[in-house]
C-alpha cells in the first residue's frame, strides 16, 4: 500500500496539515511538507497524538475552519489591504497553507499574492517559475479564470497537494494531474484540480512532482527561481512561496548583476507592488496566493474552479503570461533581459525633448572632423542620431542627422550632453592625415640642423588701399629689374616672380607675390598658409591712410609679418608723406626717424622712383627680423600661389617652393590635386628643371587645379599622392557642407547676439559710386544700435563685390551689403560656399531699415508667392494606389514636381495648399513639364479633381527687400 501523506492523514484526523506537520515535528519526526509521505509508525504516532480526532471523509465539505490556513500564514497578515477577500476563499483549501516546514516562505508569498488580485497581475511575475512546464499554453493561461487552466500548474499543485484539503480523501486511482484524464498536462487544470481537491484529491502515491507528469522537479524549481529574468519585467519578486531565499533578491531590489544603484523599470513607483507578487516563488507557494485571491470573485464557495485564478484573467493572465515568458524558452527570456537593460540605460540617461541620450561626464572629449554630422557625433557617443536631432531641436537649432554642422552647433549640443567637443582644426586635420601616411613635417624640421639650412630669398606681398598703386608698384619693380636683367622681357604673369637686387655688393633675390591686394594674402591665410615673409604696404602720399590700408596692416600684423611702408605717388602734388607717417604711427607702425623700427620708403611707382630703396629696405627688414633659411637638399614642400586650367596644357599651377628642391619628374600632391611634374617654367616662361627654396615656378602635370594657399609636397609615389589628395577632397567636401549654414545673417543676428556668438555686426559695403557708399556708411553709423551691440563697417569700396570681399567677410564674420552692385557668379558661389550673407539694395533707406531691424532682432524673411505655371485638366485617371491623376496639358509656364499647387474650377479655388506629389510624362517621372506638353499630375491625397479644372502651381520665394 502506498504510503500516506501528511495532509491526507491530517484530513483523516480532522486537523490542518500545518497542525499535523507541527505535531510531527513536536514528536521528533521531520517532514518536509504536508505532502511528504510518512511511514506507518509515524502515522501511528500522529494518530496517537490525536486520539480524539475523528477522521472525516475526504469528500466532506470544506471545513469552516478554512481560514485557519491563511491564519497561520504569516503572509496572510501581510496581505495587502486590497486583497483581503482572496484570503478567505483561499481558505477552503488548506493546501496552500503550506504549513509544511518546507514551505515557510510560502507564507510570505501569500501576501505577495495580493497584487494579483490587485489587477497588476497581468505581468505577474509568479508565472516565471513554473514556466518550464508552461509549454505553450500561454493563451489559455491568459484567458479568464473559468477556462481550464494550463498544465504547468503542476508545480503549484505540488506544494499544495490537493490531498491536503479537508475532507479531500484521495480517490484511489484518480490522478487529477494525469494527462490521460485530460487534466494533468494543463496547468490550470492542475491548479484547479488542486483547488478542487476536496472533490478529487490525488490519490496517495500520486506524486505531483513526478517529472513524468510534466512537473518540475523540486530541484529544478529552484533553478527556475534563480533565473533572473523576472517575467513581469520588474525586479524579481521575492522567491514566491519560498519568500526571499538566501541569495534571492529582495522584493523590489535590483536584480543581481544589474547595476545595483540604478533603478529598473520594475522599480518605478507604479510598479512597486508588483514585485511583491509571489509568482516567482516556489510553485506551491505561487499557487497558494494565486488561489487565495482568486477564489473570492470566481468562486464564492471557494470552489476550486477558477478559484486559484479567481481574479479572472488577471491572475491567470499573470500566471500564463509569466509562464509564457518563462516557458517560452531562453530566447525570449534573453530578449526580456536585453529589453530591460535598454530600459535601464534609457532611464539613466538624461531626457531632453522627450528623448534619452547618453550623457557625458562633462570632461569627456569628443573629437570631430570639420563638417561632421550629427550621425558622426552619435557614433562617437553611441547614441541614436534621431534622438540627437531632437535634442538639438530643443536647443533651438534645426539640422538633419546627416547634415554637416559647424563647430558652434556641436559645442551647444556637446555642452548640453556633457561632452567637450573638439573640432579638429584644418592644420590638425592635415597633420593627422599626413601622419597616417607616416609623413611628419614638424619632426622633419626639428631634425634639421643649422648646417643643413641655407639662405633663401624673402617672399614679399604688396598690400594697400584701392588705387594707391599696388599694381603699378609691382610692375615697376618687375620692369625695372627686367630692364636691368638679361632676359628680353617678362612674357607672362604667373602669380609670383623673383627679381635680383644688388645689396651690399651681393646679388640677392627677392620673391614677389604678384597678386595685388589682399586676395592672395587673405585667401592663403584663410587656409592657414603662411607664404609671406614681408608685406609692403602701399600708401598713396596724397591720400593717406585709408580703411583698406588699416585692414591690410591689421592682417599683416595678425600674421606676424613685418611691414615695409611704400609711400607712393610721391611725384604727385599734394603728396604728404609726413601725414602718412603720422597716421600709421597710430597703428603701431612707427618710422625709424620717429624712433620706431618700421622702414618708410618714398616711391613713385609711376616714375619708377625709389624702387631700389624699397628693395633695400625689404632686404634689411628681412635680415633684421627674420631667419631666412631653408634646407634645399630634400624633397620640395611649398604652397600653390595660383592655378588655372589651360586648354592645351591642362592644370597649370604656380607653386612657391618653401623648402627642399622641386625637380621635374617628382610626384607631388597639392591640395586635392596630384600628379607628376611634367614641366616647370619660371616667370619669364623659361623651362626650369629644378626650383629651390623661395622660388616660384609654374608646374604642369597636376590632375586638377589646386587653390591658392594649398600646400604641396613631393610624395614617394603617385599612389600616396593620389590617396592623400582624395582624403583631402573628402575632408574639404565635409567642411564646405558645414559652412553652408550661414556664418551670420541679418535674420539671425539678434539670436547670435543673444547666444553670445557675436557682439558686433561687421559690414562690408560695396556700391557703384563712392558717394552712395559714403552716404550709406554715414547713415548706418547713425543707427542707434542699443547697448551691448556694435556696428562696424570693416570695409567699403566702389565696384563689384569681389572674391576679396567675400574672403574678408569670411575672416571677420561680416555681412556684405551691395548697393547697386552684384557679385560675379564665381564670387557668389564662393559666398555660398563660405556661408557669407550678401544683401543687395538700390535704396539706401531699405538697407538702413534692414540693418536697424536686424539689430533689433526684428528682421524676418518675407516670402511671396511666385506663379510657376498652369495646367488644364483633360482627363482624370483613377488609381487606387496613388489617388487620382490629372491628365493635363500645361497652358503656361512650367509645372514642377514638388511645387505648391491649387486647383481652380470656374475661377474658384476648390483645392488649396496642395503639392505636386507626382509628375509624369507618359510613364516616366518628370521633374518639370513645359508649356504645351501633356503630363500626369498627382496631387497627393486630393482626389477631387475634375476635367476642365485648372491646376496652378507656384512657389514661395523670399521677397527681396527694398
Ligand atoms: N601719379 C602717380 N600715379 C600713380 C602712381 N602709382 C599708381 N598711380 C596711378 O594710380 C592708379 C591706380 O593704380 P593701381 O596700381 O592700379 O592701383 P591699385 O592699388 O593696384 O588699385 P586696385 O588694383 O584697384 O586696388 C593708376 O591710375 C595709376 O596710374 C604713382 O606713383 N604716381
UniProtKB/TrEMBL annotation:
Keyword Membrane: no
Biased composition (Basic residues): 331-340
Compartments in which it is found: Cytoplasm
PANTHER family: TR-TYPE G DOMAIN-CONTAINING PROTEIN, TRANSLATION INITIATION FACTOR IF-2-RELATED
Cellular component, GO annotation: cytosol
Function: One of the essential components for the initiation of protein synthesis. Protects formylmethionyl-tRNA from spontaneous hydrolysis and promotes its binding to the 30S ribosomal subunits. Also involved in the hydrolysis of GTP during the formation of the 70S ribosomal complex.
Similarity comment: Belongs to the TRAFAC class translation factor GTPase superfamily. Classic translation factor GTPase family. IF-2 subfamily.
Pfam families from the UniProt entry: EF-G_D2 (PF22042), GTP_EFTU (PF00009), IF-2 (PF11987), IF2_N (PF04760)
Entry binding sites for GTP: 464-471, 514-518, 568-571
Keyword Ion transport found: no
Keywords: Cytoplasm, GTP-binding, Initiation factor, Nucleotide-binding, Protein biosynthesis
NCBIfam families, A to Z: IF-2, small_GTP
Alphabetized PROSITE patterns for the sequence: G_TR_2, IF2
Species, as recorded: Arthrobacter echini
Superkingdom of the organism of origin: Bacteria
Database matches in InterPro entries: EF-G-like_DII, IF2_II, IF2_N, P-loop_NTPase, Small_GTP-bd, T_Tr_GTP-bd_dom, TF_IF2_bacterial-like, TIF_IF2
Protein name: Translation initiation factor IF-2
Domain Tr-type G: 455-626
